[in-house]
Amino acid sequence: MISLFTRCLAEFVGTFVLVFGGCGSAVFAAVFPDVKANELGIGFVGVSLAFGLTVLTMAYAIGHISGCHLNPAVSFGLWAGKRFPGSELLPYIIAQVLGAIVAAGLIYLIATGKQGFTLSGSNPLATNGFGVHSPGGYSLVACFITEVVLTFVFLIVILGSTDGRAPKGFAPIAIGLALTLIHLISIPITNTSVNPARSTGPALFAGVELFRQVWMFWVAPILGAILAGFFYSKVLGESGEQVVGEAELQLK
């Protein structure tokens, strides 16, 4: 069995790649060279693919080591689905949050290297938000519902594709595509979180006002994930195999 320290280190690296790849694409490439002249920018579709591809590639890279959660909500969902021990939740979450913070700090450092860069707009550094910080101006209630439902869906895909009864080796593809779809739906609503670590990292560098909204991006995704874990194990039926680290590929 791979040591807990090694698995947490893998979670740190994987979450770093997720945030640097996903949020970095939003900061550096989404509206390149600028909003008005956006012929070279990747837009919503490009950012959605960036998040999906980071998860897919990291699942193949570290799934056999840590399970490639990359997300406190996923760790909670796998625990609720009887796939992950509660005793390892805190170490995994600490590693994930630290990876996200380091990635967000590096994005900020690189971004300040461009003349005229400022932390302006409703979602600087690809932060998540509701109300005035929702890209489309959606309310707290609308954003909360969106994050709960989409995290629920995400965990159902994760739990189903990593079930012992599912076809082997395809879980990362299904999970990466699911995260891409989730972003295509919800970037205009919350700028897409479904991941407390991903929300926390950029908010730390974006200012107090954005950081004050981070609580929602912890509560809603974790609630959705736990509901999905209980639903899958109690209603859809579980294979009985625990999926932790080297036992099976799994995610976010």
Order of helices and strands: HHHHHHHHH
The span between the termini is 21 Å
- Output the structural class: mainly alpha
Oligomer: single chain
Mean pLDDT value: 92
Helix and strand layout, with pairings?
Blueprint: H1 4-28, H2 43-66, H3 72-80, H4 89-111, H5 140-161, H6 171-190, H7 196-206, H8 208-211, H9 216-236
Helix pairs in contact: 1-2, 1-4, 1-7, 2-6, 3-4, 3-5, 3-9, 4-7, 5-6, 5-9, 7-9
Overview in brief:
This protein has 252 residues and is mainly α. It contains 9 helices and no strands.
Please, could you describe this protein's structure?
The chain is mainly α and 252 residues long. It has helices at residues 4-28, 43-66, 72-80, 89-111, 140-161, 171-190, 196-206, 208-211, 216-236. Helix 4 (89-111) crosses helix 7 (196-206). The radius of gyration is 17 Å and the shape is globular. Mean pLDDT is 92; it is low at 240-252.
